[in-house]
Structure formats: C-alpha cells, structure tokens
Design brief:
The chain contains 25 helices and four strands. By secondary structure, the protein is mainly α. The chain folds into three domains: 77 residues, no CATH class; 182 residues, no CATH class; 182 residues, Cyclin A, domain 1. α14 packs antiparallel against α15. It is globular, with a radius of gyration of 25 Å. The two termini are 47 Å apart. Pfam families: RabGAP-TBC. InterPro entries: Rab-GAP-TBC_dom, Rab-GAP_TBC_sf, TBC1D19.
Length: 526
C-alpha cells in the first residue's frame, strides 16, 4: 500500500513538474531558485533541508505553491466536463454552432476589408509609426478616420445566434423560434445549491459593500478598517488561495488591486515588463484592421461613459496590446469550448511565405461592440498600465472569454442564460408568466448584462464588489443570480408594463442598486 502510494506521488510530481515547466512564470522562478541553490545558504552536506529552509525564507516556497495553485485552476478550467442532465447527452452541436459563428465573424471582417479596400494586416508606414509612438501616452489625440468602420457584432447579434441553437434530440417544428433555452441539456444549479456555494452571503456574514460604517470586532473603527487590517496580513503571506478566500467577504478599496493580482497570478516581473514593451513594439510595427475596431469600440463605449471616459488613453494601450498578445491565443483556441478557427493573414506587399504570415489577430480574439468594457473597471485599480494589462488579461482568460463563446461549459454564456431562466421561472413564476403573456423573452432584457459581466451597467464600485465575488468563488454564476435578483427587485413596476420598450426603461438605470445587499437578500430568503 505504501509502495503504491509512493509511486503515485512520484508520477504526480513528475507530471506536475512537466506542466509547470510550460507555465509563463517558470523561467523567472527557475532562475531565482538556481541563484538560491548557488548561494552560500544552501549547504552541500545538507542540501535538502537547507534548500527547503532557504526557499521558505526567500518566499520562493510560497511562489511555488502559488504556481501549483494557478496550474490547478487552469487544469480545472480547461478539462472540467460540463454537467449534463443525462449521461448520454451529446452537446457536440454547441461546438458546431461556435465554429459556424467564428466563420461568420471572420467573413464579416473580410467583408469590411473588401468594402474599404484595406488589408487585414500591413507593415505600418514610418510616418504613422512615428506619430503613434509620439502619442502613445495620449492616444486619444491620435487622429484616424473611423467613419466607415462599424462593430462586427453586438450582444443582440450573439443572442440571435444562441436562439438559433437546435438540439438535434429535441423535437420541434423547424420554423418555431426558441422562447427559452430549456431544450439545451446542461444541468445548472438550483437556488439551494447556490446558497451552499455562496455560503458567506447566504449566512448573512458581515460583508463589505453593505454598510461602510458597519461595526467591527475588536478595536477597529468599522468593518472596512477591520478588513483592511486583515487584508494586509493576507497580502503579507503572498499566498493566492488565502487571498481568494478573503475576497468572498469583499475587498477593501485600497487593497483590491493587489488582492486581484495575487489571486490571478498577475504580479509582474522584469520579463513581463519586457514582454509588454514587445507588444507595444508590435502595435507600432504592424497596422491591422482590428486596431480600428478597437479604437472605434473605445470611442463608442468608454469614451461616452461618465465613469470611464477619463481612462480613454490607457484603454487604447491596453486593448491594442491585447490584440497583439499571442499568449492569449493558445488558452482561447485550445479550450474545449472554443471552435479553434483562426484567420491567417499575409502582410500586404509581402510574398506569401511563412515568415510573412501571421495569425490574425495574434491574440485570436476579434472584438465586438462593448468588448472594451471587460477592461474598463481595472482602470480604477491600477496606476501602472503594465500591471493593469496583465490582471485584465488573466481575468479575461479565466472568465470573460466564456461570455462570448458558444459552449457547453457550466461557466459559459449558454449555461448562464439557462441558469437565469431556471431561477426566474422557479422563484418568480408570476413575473415569468407576465413576460410570456406579453411575448417578451426575459433573456433579451438581461443578456447585455450577462455578456458584459454588468460592466457599463453598474456603477464602478458596485461592479468591483460583484467581481470580487466572481474571483472569490471562482464562478460566473453570481452574474446570472444578480440579473434575476434585479428583475425580482423591480417586479412591481415590471408587472405594470406590457412591451419591451417600457421594460427596458424600468431597468435602464441601475445606479441606485447595491449589489451585496441584493444578493444577500435573495440568498438569505427561504
């Protein structure tokens, strides 16, 4: 028994070692350990014990633990199988829909290029490169004509794609429209199961985001002061799992950025800064049509938002660098929920050789209307655009790409739509029946909230409280739950109107809502 256990541990250790070697931070971590091994604190005659002690003293043991934590999360994200209603359920048709959707987006992109007679990618002219370089820190002054450009698609277009999904096993007239997603065989949680997941909310524990002056234990002035003191201790451990647990009860404003970076593994080192500079160089060197779509999207969204317009310049930098980031490509295209379709573009005026061919865009992500809003809240957390970039990227790769991908993943947009509908139907049956009577699909009202993770719809502070919970519980299900809760909260007014325009008017302004009390209310209520 002991022997088999030892063999299992050895095999697991070898597998883990091999996987860690493929992680982005491996090289810098390896170099630090090498330097430590070569130092005088590690003794040859007692190598193992002195090395372990040195790793602890230098904080490298914690870095190793965090690396394993982030690896384990990535494995969970990539390999976790969806929970189907039946063992025999075949959801391969969802992947086919995603492949078709990706091809449709690519076709639209090529159509824009044909209409405007522009290439997908080209070497940026020297004059343009110089101007862009000079204005890098104030890109809002970079003058380019975008009047003929339009977003490739918007949330409502993506929702139409989701409504077009047909489960081959579900008998239905081909012309009959889907009113809801009940025919898709993905198991989603019940409210009782959500109460078990979000236990801190469901048990009414003191949370930040309810009342800033809430009394605290000990000699602290209020709960914010208590949580700040505790948060500093958490950060001093530099241990990601503890930081993740801490976020379940809310992050103090002053510590939120550092806590998020720790949980996501986006704390930066010298090689990260170098890579960020390389991304900037690629933006300056290559002109790709996605640049125009990004600039257009920032102008249409963040620049017109009272809460975010001041961050216009840093958003341009962040999103342009993101488009060039090939490290985004692999996680997005190899995830089991992705279609894996990418465009290969040959640089204009260059021979069609391998060195002149690039994946377009290098990140593999083609922006849509509102895509910038995934990044806007991070502007409130970080002064350094480099740190902001890496945290945004990590958040996107962990969560947000699932919100614009058709998949059977339990954290994907299809599952969130289904979860929203099930919760609304079960716990607000009168409201559900009312929507049915006025021939209005409830998901049409809230889909833009779900697809953006509420960014641009909630005030920044409330949005950050919500995203604390996303990170703390490592789940997007809280977004669907909040959507149901908001409809429930405004139920009385919604029951008085009978068309989509008036329903949207009632739900247009969410600025007065407090996210945490609302969620506590619905999870506490039996």
């Amino acid at each position: 028994m002991e022997e088999s256990k030892k063999n299992f541990l050895e095999k697991s250790a070898k597998k883990l070692t091999k996987n860690v070697q493929n992680m982005a931070n491996y090289r810098s971590l390896y170099n630090e350990i090498q330097r430590l091994v070569a130092s005088t604190v590690v003794k040859k005659n007692d190598f193992e014990n002195t090395l372990v002690d040195a790793l602890k003293v230098n904080g490298l043991e914690t870095q190793l633990r965090n690396t394993v934590f982030h690896w384990a999360r990535s494995q969970d994200s990539l390999k976790k199988k969806p929970i189907h209603l039946t063992e025999n359920t075949d959801l391969i048709y969802l992947k086919k829909v995603q492949i078709q959707w990706e091809r449709r987006i690519q076709k639209s992109l090529n159509s824009i290029c044909s209409e405007l007679n522009i290439p997908l990618a080209r070497i940026r002219p020297s004059a343009d490169r110089e101007e862009l370089g000079e204005k890098w820190n104030e890109l809002s002054t970079y003058d380019t004509d975008l009047s003929k450009y339009r977003p490739l698609y918007a949330p409502k277009d993506f929702l139409e794609v989701l409504f077009s999904i047909r489960d081959p096993a579900f008998k239905k007239h081909p012309e009959e429209l889907n009113w809801d997603f009940s025919h898709i065989q993905i198991r989603v949680k019940t409210l009782a199961e959500l109460r078990c997941l979000y236990v801190e909310l469901a048990q009414g524990m003191p949370l930040l985001g309810v009342n800033p002056d809430m009394p605290a234990a000990g000699n602290f002035l209020n709960l914010e002061a208590e949580r700040t003191h505790l948060g500093e201790k958490v950060l001093s451990t530099n241990y990601a799992p503890i930081a993740q647990e801490f976020l379940k009860r809310g992050a103090p404003r002053a510590l939120r950025g550092r806590l998020w970076s720790l949980v996501l593994g986006s704390t930066i080192k010298d090689n990260d800064i170098e890579y960020y500079d390389e991304l900037k160089t690629m933006v300056l060197q290559y002109d790709i049509v996605v640049d125009k779509l990004i600039i257009k999207d920032v102008q249409l969204t963040a620049s017109n938002d009272d809460q975010y317009f001041v961050f216009e310049d840093v958003l341009y930098k962040t999103m342009l660098c993101f488009s060039r980031d090939s490290e985004v490509l692999t996680p997005v295209t190899t995830d089991r929920s992705a279609g894996g379709q990418v465009i290969h573009a040959v640089l204009q005026g260059k021979p069609a050789t391998l060195e002149n061919t690039l994946v377009f865009p290098p990140s593999g992500v083609i922006p849509f209307h509102g895509f910038t809003m995934y990044a806007t809240p991070f502007c409130y957390l970080y002064d350094d655009p480099c740190i902001m970039y890496y945290t945004f990227r990590a958040f996107y790769l962990r969560y947000w790409f699932r919100l614009h991908t058709v998949s059977s993943h339990e954290q994907g947009i299809v599952a969130l739509c289904l979860l929203f509908e099930r919760l609304l139907q079960c716990h607000e049956p009168l409201l559900w029946a009312h929507f049915k009577n006025i021939h209005l699909q409830p998901i049409k009202i809230v889909f833009k909230w779900l697809m953006r993770g509420f960014s641009g719809h909630l005030p920044p502070e409330q949005l950050l409280c919500l995203w604390d919970l996303v990170l703390g519980y490592d789940s997007l299900e809280i977004i669907a739950l909040l959507a149901v809760t908001i409809l429930s909260f405004r139920k009385e007014n919604l029951m008085q109107v009978n068309n989509q325009h008036n329903v949207e008017a009632i739900l247009a302004d969410l600025s007065s809502l407090k996210v945490i009390p609302l969620l506590q209310l619905v999870l506490l209520k039996e």
